[in-house]
Amino acid sequence: MATPVMGQTCPETPDHSARLAQIVDELRVSRGEGEARVLTQELWALWTDAPDAAAQAMLDEGMSRRSSYDFLGARVTLSRLVDYCPDYAEGYNQRAFASFLSQDYDAALVDLDRALELVPNHIAALSGKGLTLLELGRNEEAQAALRAAVEMNPWIQERALLAEPLGRDL
């Protein structure tokens, strides 16, 4: 695994903001789940494009640990990533996911808010925030977050959690 050398600083996070905005616009008018799935895969490719090899290795390891149900190991690895690259949104989003799965909803919410500060149209972080707020019993805030996520991508699964469906016939 590539790790940063002592004192090494994280390079700038790749600026994918223009393409991210374009994909979100395309998702809003997409005609079906298949089209939305292809666009969402491209979003994930951009979100998980880490600033350098060391950051990518930490992200990949953290996601792998999370997928293997090693939530503590994932959080430790992703915390190293966040410490190394504090302006890389996906480090926070993935650590939030590991925290959510560990039922540490307060920690998840802090990381999701930071991810959304860095990438306001991060649909996955926004829907994750909605799910986290639901777990915390903050239903009104949860509905607002979920509604915002569904407005960006009307095909996400979390649309089923909206108290009142959006006007678009899905």
TrEMBL record:
Q: Does the keyword Magnesium apply?
A: no
Q: Which organism is it from?
A: Yoonia algicola
Start-end of the TPR repeats? 89-122
| Name of the protein this chain belongs to | Tetratricopeptide repeat protein
Q: Which domain of life is it from?
A: Bacteria
> What broad taxonomic lineage does this protein's source fall under?
Bacteria, Pseudomonadati, Pseudomonadota, Alphaproteobacteria, Rhodobacterales
Keywords assigned: Repeat, TPR repeat
> Does the keyword field hold Repeat?
yes
